[in-house]
Structure formats: structure tokens, C-alpha cells
Amino acid sequence: MAKASNEDKLNLLVDAIGEVNGYAIRESVAGSREMKDYNRTKWGLRASALALVAVIGMTTLLMPKKGGAVVGPEPGADGANVYADTASVGNEDEKVEFAPGEAELTLKSETWLFTSYSTYEVFVRDTLRNIGWDYFDASYTLYPNTLSGSYEEGYWMLVLASADKCDENGIKTGAHINVLYKDYVGASSPYVATDEEPAEVLLEKFSDEKYDEIVEKYGLDKGLTDVDENAVLHGEFGVDPVVCNKEEKCACGVDYEIISHAVSEDLLTYAAVFECSQGKCPNSSYDDDVDVLIRTYKYEKKEKTDSVDVLGIVSGKVYDIVPEKDMLDLAKEYLGEEISGATFTYYPGTLDENTPDGPVMYAGIHVDGGAAELLAKLHLSATWESEIVEQFTSDEYDKIAEKYGLSDGSGTVTVSCDGCEPLDISFDGAKGRDVKCLECGGEYKLLSHGVADDGVTYAAVYKCENEHEGDHGRVIVLIQKYGRSTDGNEFVEDVNGDGK
Amino acid sequence: MDDAEKEQKQTKKRPALSDAEIVALYRKRYESAISETETKYGRLLYSVAYSILGSREDAEECVNDTYVRAWESVAFDDPDNLSAYLCRITRNLAIDMYRRGRSRAETATDAMDELADVVGSVDSDTMTDRVALTNAINRFFMSLPPKKRMIFMRRYFYMNSTKEIAKMLTTTDGAVRVTLHGLRKKLREYLEGEGIVYDTKKGK
Lengths: 500, 204
Description:
The structure holds 2 protein chains of 2 kinds. By secondary structure, chain A is an alpha+beta fold. Chain A contains 8 helices and 21 strands. Chain B has 2 domains: 15-100, Rna Polymerase Sigma Factor, Chain: A, CATH 1.10.1740; 106-193, Arc Repressor Mutant, subunit A (Orthogonal Bundle), CATH 1.10.10.10.
């Protein structure tokens, strides 16, 4: 992008607006006339309103705003659950981000709360009388984006009355004033109008010139005020506010019309201001009903029943097993004759930690190139000595293998938990390299490894890379249990086998 | 009553031609196309020019220039909506005159100042080309509810004052200004989101 002066940029913007599509231009010409007609019937005071003020008098002032008459469903009756595409909850410091499908948006409460133009009118009249205005013409702007409070304690929002002073014939004199009110709108609110405490609190009287200051001071433009009536609310709630509101009818059975609606700053409260589409509801004793719908949504994190975040070692142990030298002695003793050498095959897949004698596994001893085949039962606990349990020939190997389950097992642990899909973890023995020889600190090399019958216990046999004087090399068995958990902090890795 | 008077009276009584009929006159290069345009849209175009220029003479000159421009281009462009087409010409001609300093309506100057907020500070970098910006603004406009779109157009296309807009919509000046404040902020955010305008202090 090329650098441009501020004037250049402004000119670009002004020109671009000048090239806006014809629809917007045409609409703005035709629409302003239609809107004027529309608003003439919808907003502001009717000609009769001035007279109405005198009639209503203090009766309305002291009247609770429609009392407790709740229109529409009872609180919580809907109970609908909707899902958020993305959402965040909490203040800036502790914001929790939810991914699609992880968060559930629950309709917490629902109620209809209300006031009426005529009620506002009375408050405005009393305010303006104090500055010497006996007659006036006012229109009202409600700011649902300023909604604050709670369902339990009641809500309030800001309402602006813009009033023109009139003479006794209703002719405007040219004097103009704005009056900002804090309007407690909760039917369940402790601030419902009473003899002692009016429902509205006067905040400011100000001229048009001060308007920007007021906007900033009271946050009249805060929140998300531009909720498109035809769009999904804020793009996040998954609720079309129009659809919601159209489900509701005025007490007279006629649809409501939305005047304005917005989402409060916490993003969880949606407020809509609307009125009976008939204008004055024939069933109401009030003139020009204005109802406020407040829906409060609450995000709740879904239970983790179908997925697991963390996977790892639940526990780990390292056992010294009989050295190769001792294995030779064992074979020699069993055979009763001198042997020159042997090779060993460890079967970690035969690991059984729960025998009365403690953990055991089997190892094959291939004596003198096949002169004898022995099967040793290796006790991993130091309190038991290993023993030869079978002698067989090479031809009998399959039978022995079947009898003792000599498959060395796969290198894969399949872990699962209630309600979740099993997950395979493959090993290449690399984990064992984290274990150093307890005697010399040397690296261990993997001899064999396998998974016990329980499916979650992985055993690996390692031999130190260094020759150890007298025992032909140190051999260990590393046993690790793997599991799945929603809380990764509970895993314990006790690779030293000392329980610490 | 002589024939000329009769003809004049008949002309006054005759309803305005449809847009299609006027466009057809332009295509056929009949000079009556301009008089018909003036009859139907003269006042509208004058009001558009006057809102920006604030001078009767300059507004009239601007409208006359619009007719000249229309004479040159209508047959070629074949506009779907003649009023919007003419309004755009008038508005942009008036903006050109405004920039040349011929005359400036106070409300237009105020509107320009407000729009300056949208494009950012002196330290900001620039915007992309006009076509991209126009497309983005069109998308932004169409995302707005009709009433807000109208308020924005009235203020920044026609350069009407907030009081005039409030009167058109039978609402308050304050309510219009609040809406415009929100719309400018939203437009700024939208253009930033589209990567069309950004503040180098904030980064892109």
C-alpha cells in the first residue's frame, strides 16, 4: 500500500461513499419518506398524549409498571439449549475459550419486563415542570445495550427523552432539552415503582451540544448495539432474535414488533425492546406499551465423556532381574553339567505383577546353540529367586509357547476409559533410554519389550551398554503403566522404583 | 389564452415521464431528455447539491453540470435507476466543487470531519484503492439494518445535518448522532477487519 496523507484518505472514503450502489441511494430517498410516516405512528407522543398526561396524573406515577403481570412464557419455561459456534466467558483476565461443540449455551432465564411510554411521560413531565415547562412533546430512545443488573436483583437500562417545549396549543416554541433516565425494568426488581421510590432515576438534563459527552459518560454506544434483526444474534448465539420474539405475542394476541435490541457487554444477556404491532394494545390499560424482553444465557462446559485430553504414564517401576551370569549358573545347576554359553530371550509380554510371589516374567535360555532349551521364571521381586520351570526341545517350542504365553507381546498399549474410544500407543523402546544404569550411569539398550495381558502395562528389558565386572552386564526390567485421564496432573512416573 | 400558454399549462398538468421513457429520450439524443429530467428530478438534485455546497448559485450550477454529464453518459450507462444515477452524479460533482472551495455548507464540513475519524490518525498508513474501498463499503452498507443504512447515507452521501435527518425520521437529533457515532465506529472496525484501513500504531 502506498502512503497517503490524511486528506487523501478522507477523499478516498468520501469518493467511495459516492460510488455506493444505487440501491442504497434509492432506498435513502424513498425510505426516508416511508420511515417518517412509519415513525409518525410508532414513536413519539401522539397528539392525544399531551392531554393524556393531565388525565393520568399521579395515578400512573404511583402505579407499579404493569405490576407483576408477566406476559409470555414463565421464566425458564423455554429451557431451550443452543450451541455456540465459538464463545468466551469471563472477564479479560480469566477468559475461557470454548471451541465448537465444547460449550453449551443454556437459556438461564426468561422473562418479560415492561414499562410504557405513558409512564415515561409522567416522569418527564415532573422533571420538566421543575424547569418551568408545562407542555412538551417528547420522543424516547431506549438503549438495551446499556442493560445491567441480574435476573434476581432486577435490571435497569438507560432511556433518553428528547423533549420540545410547547405552548398550551401544542405548538413547539423552539426550546429543546434531553433528559436521561435510568429505568429499572424488572418486574421482579426491588426497584419497581412504589409510593416511596419511583422506578426511574433522573440522571441528566442536557442540551444537544452535550450529547457526545453524555454518550461517552454513560456508554450509550457501548455493547453490541448493531444486532441485525435478520441475522444470527452477534454471530455467536445461534439464536435468531426475530424468531424468538415472534414466538411471543402481546396480551392481545398480536405479534410484537422489535423496536431495538442488543447484547449487553457480558455477551450473555440479550435484550430486546418491542411493542405490540397494533400500537396501542386494546387489552392494556396503558398507552403505548413498551415491553422489554431479557434473555440471559449461560455457557457451561460440557462433561468430558467422549474425549480425553491427556495420556501418559500412570506409574512406572524399574526392577533389577537376575544377571546373565546368574542365569547361566541357574541353567548349569538345573542341567547338572558345565555349559559354555547361552543366549537369552526375555518375554516381557508374560509379565504378571499380581502373583502371590510378586511380579514375574519368563525368559528362555538357549544353551550351547540348542543343546538344551530351558524356560526360566524370573521373579522380579528381590525376595524370590528365579527358577527353571521347563526343559524342552526345539520341536516342542510351540507347545511351550502356547502353554506359557511366550509371545513377547506387541509393542502397543491400548488404553481406554469408560465411554471413550480405545487409543493405541506404540513403543519403540525409546522411553527406556531415559533410564540410566543405576550402577554406572550408562545408557541402557533395549533387549525386548511387550505389553502384559492387562493391556495397559508395558514392560521392557534393558541391558546396560557397559560391561559390568562379574555379572556380564546389568539387566533391568522397566515396567510402566499407561492410562487416560481427563486430568493430566495425576500421572506418576516412578521410574526409580523407590516409590518416590 | 394563446397557444404557448396552453402548451405550458398542458405541460404542467402532464405527469412526469417514467425513468425508462426519459432514458429512451437520452438514447435518441432528444434534448427534451434534459427538460424531462429537470421536471422530474430538478428539485431533488438541487437539494443534494445545496446540502453540500450551501450556496444557491453553486447548487444550481452543479445541477446544470449534472444535466450535461447525464447527456453524455446516460445512453452509454443505461442506468437501472435514474434517480440514484443522477443523485450520484450531482453529489460527486458537488463534492468536487466543495473541494475546490467554491462554497461549503457547514453541515458538509461537519460530516467530512466526522468521516476523518474513520480513516484514522496522521500516523496511520493508507487505505487500498478506491474500488476495493467502494466494494467494502457496499458490503458494509448491506450488512446494516435499513434504518441505519439510511441514516448513514443521509449524513455522508447527501451530507444532511443530523437535525434534518432526525426530522425526516421523526426522531431526535441526539438519537441520530448516537447512531452515527456507532456507525462510524463500526465502519472503522469493518475497514480494519478487511485490511483496508489500519492504524500503524496498532499494527495490521
